[in-house]
Amino acid sequence: MNSSSGWRISNQKILVSWTPDSGKTQPPMSIIDLPKEQDLVEYRVDRILEEANTDTRIVVLARQDGALDTFPIWVGAAEGNAIKLALDTMITPRPMSHDLIKSFAEHLNITIQRVVITDVKSSTYYATVYVANKGIERTIDARPSDAISLALRAPCPIYITQDVLKRRSTTNLDAWLAKLDSKHIGTPEVQET
Fold first, then answer.
1. What is the rounded (10 degree) CA torsion for 126, 114, 70, 145?
2. What is the pTM of this model?
3. Sign of the alpha-carbon dihedral angle for 87, 90, 91, 92
């Protein structure tokens, strides 16, 4: 175990040791199972849709292998705009937060290897950013929107676990997305006369 970090990777598991502020050493908190490669499906950002009624954005992920499957994630307007900037490879006059994180990583020789959407609880998705430095891989908990923004800037692959794909709600999803994508955003469906 690397005593400075408290992390040890062992056969697809990470062992975590934690020392609270009081200085007392505790036994390992938990063993975290890493998703196996065969449990992951690679996706890419297909498009960003604007949900005019709620001032949110919908990040639509599509299978990287071309299979017909979309995976939408609702994010805030600012988060959606950050993803759109990266997707469009727009360069801002000053670095955005995700650009700053990427710059820190580069200067510290940390490689952002991949992001994985790992869990869904109460309709909220969770993600993990995998980074490596000097042959040691570590994971960082992240919101999917931040993880996707970093993935587009790094660049690195975006994966979703099979478990998350099985537990998502997809009732009429593709028809709803097609309708939302095709209508003119911001125009009421019924015109007043």
1. 50
2. 0.72
3. negative
